[in-house]
Amino acid sequence: MADLNTPELRTTYLGLTLKNPIVPSSTPLSRTLDPVLHMEDAGAAAIVMHSLFEEDVANDERMMDRFLVHPDTFGESAGHLPADAGYQSKLDTYLEQIERLKARLAIPVIASLNGNSLSGWVELGKEMEAAGADALELNAWYMASDPALGAVALEERYLALLRELKTVVSIPVAMKLSPFFSSLPNFVARIEAAGGAGVSLFNRFFQPDIDLETLSVVDRVQLSTPADGLLTMRWIALLRGHTGLSLAATGGVHGADDALKMLLAGADVVHMASALLQNGPQSIATVLEGMTRWMSEREYASVEQLKGSMSQRKLTDPSAFARAAYLNAIDSFTPPPGVRY
Length: 341
Description:
With about 350 residues, the chain is of the alpha/beta class. The chain has helices at about 35-40, 55-70, 90-105, 120-130, 150-165, 185-195, 230-240, 255-265, 275-280, 280-295, 305, 325-330, and strands spanning about 10-15, 15-20, 20-25, 45-55, 110-115, 135-140, 175, 200, 210, 215-220, 245-250, 270. Helices cover about 40% and strands about 15% of the residues. The strands form three sheets. Strands 3-12-11-8-7-6-5-4 form an eight-stranded parallel β-sheet. The chain has a two-stranded antiparallel ribbon with strand order 1-2. A two-stranded antiparallel ribbon has the order 9-10.
């Protein structure tokens, strides 16, 4: 039995045994080796790599076809074409980074694919597995802007991607989801039936903005705040005990309190991104220290004991995560001092 003064932090995610539940999620930090080594030193239990985007692979293929396979050989321009052997595609770079990380890290490496079409997923998944990835995170997102596309057809699009990928890879595949599904529990159950190993909740999409000075649409990076984690926490609490999939909490985890709430709700791992971008790898060590101290003070022996102990199925009042919570929040609102209505 674990010493109550030193809680056991191990957890299981996607069938992988991790030394603790803190996993840096997909960020540009994993494009180079040193930041990842620093995150491992700070206590990261695994790393989710930056995403390989389907659009980047497709653009590379078009450039290869245009300039290297079917070049225009007329005129002097042919002498300025790049040599085939020297061309480094984004896929090549990504696969090399997997190999580099696997050679230097003692923690699992989870590759990330971002796209929405069937073409290419099979080959990409096979190559990532061959490069040494321990698991895949399928970040499949499709903007449903077509009024003719129904919810069932949209969900089937995601599931087809997963099924296609699972036909050729043996490593576990997790799906990173948005909160924009009409019946999330049903969709998660279908992911499990299609061979998925886990879900990551939720994807935070960068939203375009309008610049009032230039009257142009602009893209800005919007980092998360702890408030962004409340939706994730609620859904993980609702899903825990209703699915055999691993559950990863993504978005809004900046401190030990945020991580503990996700674990109490039922998360197997907690992903961190914005806090790392803002404050560096030491954020991981700070969260782990705070978690360990809190668990020791309350005599939790392990993360396994902690996980899901405040999920909906474990609460004496299951309505706390259901519609009643909405009504209670409205009724409990008190106007700030000095504000007159």
